[in-house]
UniProtKB/TrEMBL annotation:
Catalyzes a trans-dehydration via an enolate intermediate. It holds the Pfam family DHquinase_II. This is 3-dehydroquinate dehydratase. GO terms for molecular function: 3-dehydroquinate dehydratase activity. It comes from Agrococcus casei LMG 22410. The chain crosses the membrane at residues 113-133. Belongs to the type-II 3-dehydroquinase family. Pathway: Metabolic intermediate biosynthesis; chorismate biosynthesis; chorismate from D-erythrose 4-phosphate and phosphoenolpyruvate: step 3/7.
Amino acid sequence: MRILVLNGPNLGRLGSREPEIYGSATLADVQTLLNGVAGVEAEVRQTDDEAELIRWIHAAVDERTPVVLNPAAFTHYSYGLRDACAMLQGVAPLIELHLSNPHARESFRHTSVISGVATGVIAGFGIAGYRIAAELLRDSE
Ligand code: DQA
């Protein structure tokens, strides 16, 4: 099955960005990891642009494509992204993913405007979370 793995702002810097929090793996490593998940064709993308991310969600709705989404900082305040994600409900599963555990960090990270419209959330397991998300989507098909 085809899945979209969408990543929000600053995640293009994965590998060098605050490695003590996010680890040293890059998004290219995430793609390699997902290439090893049998039965899944994952397309990893990243943007710093809220509008572009929303357009990708719209396309996923239209194509009924399952999504793994790390909304990064948009998690905490983007009602526009949330409203786009809401359109996936009943159409295709959406897994919200975070490398770190936002609940163990600053209080502004404790709120997610996305979780209420996600099928489920994976947080705190680094890039292994992406593999788990892909396996869950495959196995729940
Ligand atoms: C993050 C957590 C967010 O709070 C933060 O803004 C990010 C990354 C994570 O993967 O742990 O950019 O989504």
